[in-house]
Amino acid sequence: MTSAGAARRGARRALFLAGAFCAGMLILGLLGYGVLRLFLWHPWSDDDRDSRADPGSGDVSLSKSLRLTGLTLPPGATNVRYYVKANMRGTLVQLTYRVPCGRVPGVLAEAKLTTPVAMDAIGAQNVRHFAERHGWRPDTGTTTALTDTKTWPTTALVNTPPGAVDCSLYLDAFN
Q1: Domains in the chain: how many in total?
Q2: Are residues 31 and 59 located together in one domain of the fold?
Q3: Number of alpha helices (DSSP H) and beta strands (DSSP E) in the chain
Q4: Cystine design at 154: which of 46, 68, 148, 171 (Cβ 3.0–4.6 Å)?
Q5: Residues 36 and 97 both lie in one domain
Q6: Where are its TM segments located (predicted)?
Q7: pLDDT digits (tens, 9 = 90+) for 105-150
Q8: What beta strand segments (E) does the chain contain?
Q9: Helix (H, G, I), strand (E, B) or coil at 157
């Protein structure tokens, strides 16, 4: 074998390696660009999020999280705020809103929240923390804690300020 043949083979090999390197970099660049575009396009970016969602809420919409946990948002509810987290174990929804006090018994009956519980019960702690983050104070009227008749997946606090027309409901549900 001549040295000219070995030089040509070496040149071809170097050209092949350079081409393979360029092709690999092009593929990696396109993948990186695609991931960046997907990240920037993601429909649940902060600009597209429901303004009623608390900071740190997951990507599950309020309507879907209500459907998953069996809660409902009564028509005419005001001051709606919520927090939702979903993972493989289930969906946690914490929801607060105000409704006329006369509608509260119907809302609670529909949600099957009829069993009174102690305010400091273990099942009521999460909803208490959520309620405190949203302005509830123990000294602002009467507060009642209720749970469903099942195994504590849903708990509610109902706050009735003295002489108020609207009552605040704070709910914590997991499914």
Answers
A1: 2
A2: no
A3: 4, 6
A4: 148
A5: no
A6: 14-36
A7: 988 888 888 888 888 787 788 888 899 999 888 888 888 888 886 6
A8: 78-87, 90-100, 113-116, 142-148, 154-160, 166-174
A9: strand
- Indicate left, alpha or beta for 139 from its phi (over 0: left) and psi (-120 to 50: alpha): alpha
Which residue's structure tokens are 């949600």? 111
The secondary structure element, H or E, covering residue 25 is helix 3-41
The verdict on 63 and 101 lying in the same domain is yes
Query: Do 91 and 151 reside in the same domain of the chain?
Result: yes
List, edge to edge, every strand of the sheet that includes 166-174: 78-87, 90-100, 166-174, 154-160, 142-148, 113-116
Question: 15 is in which domain, residue-wise?
Answer: 1-41
Listed as ranges, residues in the chain with pLDDT below 70 are 1, 39-49, 149-152
Q: Does residue 83 share a domain with residue 32?
A: no
